[in-house]
């Protein structure tokens, strides 16, 4: 079940087997009315594994995963708008939209990879992360700083990555010209010429079993939690040095 990410929160989408159902909450909020629906058609037992509602495009788009395929849908017409066949070599587990770049979508799956897509051209991923050694169950963009990516896997690890080259600030934090001296200005121009490097910031190994869920705090952009099969919930912070590097 997915709540509309923006707006008045009166719309809900549910994925059931091979069906997408769009519900409208009535004023009383005690009853939901089915406003539209569509179904995946094809051979075999088609079933959605996950979905994500885009916060962009006036909340008229969702992305779904079934088997190895990722699809985009327009909620107004319930028609397919893009399709990434064989997005992953095995089952796609999770999806997440970049909160600041409207066409960027992350996916992860049982091929141990995390992929980043530009939904305007889905022939190839923009970037691929191959740091995990088993199924990747979750991928999450940071709500405030979209270069920070969190992933959780059956390899019992949580990885925090800095995907700055495909973030909304690929050249770092921009400084106003008025604030720079001539020497600083020249140095800043040299820095601006190339995007900052992507890297793994930290690998967290506090879990002893498969990590099934990772989530950023909605109140503190530097705080995140992870949950594993052994029932352990771990809360961590983004390393302080990186936090100040992003902010200053």
TrEMBL record:
<feature type="domain" description="EIPR1-like beta-propeller">
    <location>
        <begin position="1"/>
        <end position="160"/>
    </location>
</feature>
<comment type="similarity">
    <text>Belongs to the WD repeat EIPR1 family.</text>
</comment>
<feature type="repeat" description="WD">
    <location>
        <begin position="85"/>
        <end position="121"/>
    </location>
</feature>
<dbReference type="InterPro" id="IPR036322">
    <property type="entry name" value="WD40_repeat_dom_sf"/>
</dbReference>
<dbReference type="InterPro" id="IPR059104">
    <property type="entry name" value="Beta-prop_EIPR1-like"/>
</dbReference>
<feature type="region of interest" description="Disordered">
    <location>
        <begin position="175"/>
        <end position="194"/>
    </location>
</feature>
<dbReference type="Pfam" id="PF00400">
    <property type="entry name" value="WD40"/>
</dbReference>
<dbReference type="InterPro" id="IPR001680">
    <property type="entry name" value="WD40_rpt"/>
</dbReference>
<dbReference type="GO" id="GO:0016567">
    <property type="term" value="P:protein ubiquitination"/>
</dbReference>
<dbReference type="InterPro" id="IPR040323">
    <property type="entry name" value="EIPR1"/>
</dbReference>
<dbReference type="InterPro" id="IPR015943">
    <property type="entry name" value="WD40/YVTN_repeat-like_dom_sf"/>
</dbReference>
<protein>
    <submittedName>
        <fullName>EIPR1 protein</fullName>
    </submittedName>
</protein>
<dbReference type="InterPro" id="IPR019775">
    <property type="entry name" value="WD40_repeat_CS"/>
</dbReference>
<feature type="compositionally biased region" description="Basic and acidic residues">
    <location>
        <begin position="184"/>
        <end position="194"/>
    </location>
</feature>
<keyword id="KW-0677">Repeat</keyword>
<dbReference type="Pfam" id="PF23609">
    <property type="entry name" value="Beta-prop_EIPR1"/>
</dbReference>
<keyword id="KW-0853">WD repeat</keyword>
């Amino acid at each position: 079940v997915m709540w509309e990410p923006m707006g008045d929160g009166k719309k809900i989408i549910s994925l059931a087997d091979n069906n997408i159902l769009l519900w409208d909450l009535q004023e009383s909020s005690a009853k939901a009315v089915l406003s539209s629906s569509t179904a995946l058609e094809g051979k075999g037992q088609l079933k959605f594994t996950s979905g994500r509602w885009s916060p962009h495009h006036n909340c008229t788009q969702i992305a779904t995963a079934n088997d190895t395929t990722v699809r985009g849908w327009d909620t107004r017409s319930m028609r397919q708008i893009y399709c990434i066949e064989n997005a992953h070599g095995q089952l796609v587990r999770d999806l997440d939209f970049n909160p600041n770049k409207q066409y960027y979508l992350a996916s992860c799956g049982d091929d141990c990879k995390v992929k980043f897509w530009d939904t305007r051209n889905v022939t190839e991923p923009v970037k691929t992360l191959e740091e995990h050694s088993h199924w990747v169950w979750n991928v999450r963009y940071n709500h405030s700083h979209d270069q920070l990516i969190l992933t959780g896997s059956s390899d019992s690890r949580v990885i925090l990555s800095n995907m700055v080259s495909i973030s909304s600030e690929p050249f770092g934090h921009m400084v106003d010209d008025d604030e720079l001296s001539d020497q600083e200005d020249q140095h800043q121009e040299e820095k601006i010429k190339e995007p900052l490097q992507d890297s793994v910031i930290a690998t967290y190994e506090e879990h002893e079993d498969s990590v099934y869920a990772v989530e950023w705090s909605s109140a503190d952009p530097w705080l995140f939690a992870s949950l594993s099969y052994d029932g352990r919930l771990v809360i961590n912070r983004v390393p302080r040095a990186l936090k100040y590097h992003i902010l200053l």
